[in-house]
């Protein structure tokens, strides 16, 4: 980790503290371009937006995917207060961002929170794979 990484990660932590002070969940992120310049900042607005996807990491990944060319995205680093969750990690990977630097790991964050109830999502499938494959076949060629 470079001194610039530490400076930018501390900025993400400042944004997280400001988010909490403003009544939001205490999570924030920023994107720094290949030259180290901050391109955009965001904080968690899940409650304010009534939107379960309003994590700062996902908001910035969506911004990067729509606003940055692939080469710039690949040279861009996300600095974030906590390790991205699975939803956010998927968005980050698809956005083409090249690197993520986070402060708290998922395990460290979990230790700071009350226990969560177990998830009860039931997945059934695959179902109708022959039919489901028809609209997809050939798309990725």
From TrEMBL:
Domain of life: Bacteria
Pfam families per record: dCMP_cyt_deam_1
SUPFAM superfamilies linked to this entry: Cytidine deaminase-like (SSF53927)
GO molecular function, one term: catalytic activity
CDD domains for the chain: nucleoside_deaminase
PANTHER family in the record: CYTOSINE DEAMINASE FAMILY MEMBER, TRNA(ADENINE(34)) DEAMINASE, CHLOROPLASTIC
Record's protein name: tRNA(Arg) A34 adenosine deaminase TadA
